[in-house]
């Protein structure tokens, strides 16, 4: 007996601006203020970002309430931190007329974005990513989330930023390992969507490793264009957006098996090599293509093999628990060629037998 | 230097079904299963609802994972409870293919709806309200939220239900105080939107107090139609939806000043009388109109005065902290006449001087 129906009105298309430049952090505050004239500002950052001087650069001596995540890093990406942020906002007497400014790496952006999504049914968030990883990937696209005591990203929301400011000068303060590992997501973007971008990276590794601002601006533009267009097409990850997961199925397992000792980009590098080996195993691509990718990763100094200490059964078990697993076995994003993801029957995440994956994991040692 | 823009696609209009009937709880499970064939089900309820036999009626002997909120009631409407629900879902190995079923009063619906909104970036929730309050009001409209250690509803999300099942037979198990106080929101719906509905309530108080199923079905239909149409027009509470707040400005303050000893409907009854007194004070209505409203509340046995123990300054202070306050003073929803909310310059929440409110509070003793 269907009795009544309540309409939930649709929402109109909106858009947000990504500002890219070198040394734009000092002018960002005034721009955010101008764009949100009726709003208070609340900054979420972490102790590393503060130590690097980026909070000072953003505030320029202005007083502003902020929350410093301690300790910095993945270990703080918990629901407890998100709750602490919301309670800090309340204690600062902030209401719905508040814009949250996420100043930091992927962890800061994920936590602050989630806190903004759930604070009094949602307030805007401006993302100011300060790592190569966050600038290439996590600051764009609207995925936010934190971990529970049981699993990763158990809590989350789709919460698109109101604006993104990418200051390529701030990555100068990153240590080498973090700087380099974050570039893996840029390589991934070339692989899944733009052979020209891949070749640009291949041809500019010296400038990239020297942290040349002009080259990094080019990377930022490529990254935002590629990730932006994928997200625009499939904001809620029904299908196409899955291509961003290239290298992440094995990558997530490797990252978890390392107890998060490996950085996300490092684990994804291994995962991309794994995907390449699967493609070779299935005769989808030639070893020479994988050699080109491996050569870039070796120049970046990121791993291209599974650490010897990692037990293969553990990796297999972790993959069975993959969030996107079907019947306890994940699907894989694979390439037809550089710049082109394979699509089978309209699906971008395809079946690969367990046997093939086991073989590939052996070759990854 | 605006660099790039990312489009966030709009969402299409959707709709959800409200099923209204007597003794429909035993058939609801099969209907939910049929409507969400690929989904697992997870029930959130509380110990009172279980003791009243409603969980058994819903499950009909089928095994299903569930979470029982303990203790039942407002005191458990916290972020900790929402976190515990999400972690219980994870421990039951549930994923994004899960529909949350909220079986209970307003508190259960608010907590379970919020947990569904944040579990793995959001899963559907079906609301099965079991109190007169939740059936008239909170189960419809998509507002969800929980309290922080600092304030009420600090955490929240707009998360529309996938369906609502209103079984008017389940309210038979409510104690008299809870049953009667929940009816105040039905009276409010008549006052703000439909003089005919108000007269229907006036003319059927015997049947209503006898919990006659046919009369309660009529109430449910009126309530859903009125609240549904307001929510459809203004889902995110930009303006029109504020009319649902009639009686709530003073009501929320009274509820808080009682340390939540007063039930929500009881406090709103006092708040509706306060709004009526403001209308008289401003010569917007005649005392005879307020007498009709007061007569209904007296039959329902809900309070029409502020308790003598309640300090006026405390009420004023609480109103200054009203969520919708502007310059630390709330706006009020007022009536032009029964069935018609006053609209000034296109705004449904209007300015009332502090002096008028202070006078009215004195008369409310």
Q: Proportion of β residues of chain A?
A: 5-15%
Which CATH C-level class of the largest domain in chain A is it? Mainly Alpha
Radius of gyration of chain A: 21 Å
Helix content of chain A: 40-55%
Cα end-to-end separation of chain A: 61 Å
Count up the domains of chain A: 2
Count every beta strand of chain A, where a strand is a DSSP E run of 2 or more residues. Answer: 11
The protein's oligomeric status is: homodimer
Largest sheet of chain A: 6 strands, parallel
Tell me the number of helical segments of chain A per DSSP (H or I, 4 or more residues long).
16
Low-confidence stretches of chain A: none
Element order, helices and strands of chain A? EEHEHHEHEHEHEEEHHHHHHHHHEEH
Fill in the CATH topology of the largest domain in chain A.
Dehydroquinate synthase-like, alpha domain
CATH architecture of the largest domain in chain A: Up-down Bundle
- Most extensive interface: pair and counts? A-B, 60 and 61 residues
Assign the CATH superfamily of the largest domain in chain A.
Dehydroquinate synthase-like - alpha domain
Describe the structure concisely:
The structure is a homodimer. Chain A has about 375 residues and is an alpha/beta fold.
Give the SSE map.
The structure is a homodimer of 365-residue chains.
Chain A (H helix, E strand, L loop, with lengths): L3 E5 L5 E8 L3 H11 L4 E7 H5 L2 H6 L6 E4 L9 H13 L6 E7 L1 H13 L6 E5 L2 H7 L4 E4 L8 E4 L4 E5 L8 H7 L1 H10 L1 H9 L1 H5 L3 H21 L14 H10 L6 H18 L5 H14 L11 H9 L14 E3 L2 E2 L12 H10 L2
Parallel strand pairs in A: 2-9, 3-4, 3-5, 5-6, 6-9
Antiparallel strand pairs in A: 7-8, 10-11
